[in-house]
Amino acid sequence: xxxxAKRLDxxxxxIDTLSAAMIAFARAEEKLINLEQRxxxxxxxxxxxxxxxxxxxxxxxxxxxxxSTINKLFWIVTVAVVSALVANFWx
Length: 91
Hints:
The chain is mostly helical.
């Protein structure tokens, strides 16, 4: 009987150790799942930022063309007005 009790105690200790290991394993698995979820969320967020950046780049290209055209028109009008004034002044 005493040997059986010792044996049962050792078995119980091993079961306790295994259960503690399983709990630790489950916690580690939960942490890994949480990290993966955060990674996916950050990846999706970066993709959204990338799409926004592409839209901003396209808009800036359009704005640059518009400003360039306005700048050219401004100088054409300025030169025409100055030429007209000079022509009227000399006549």
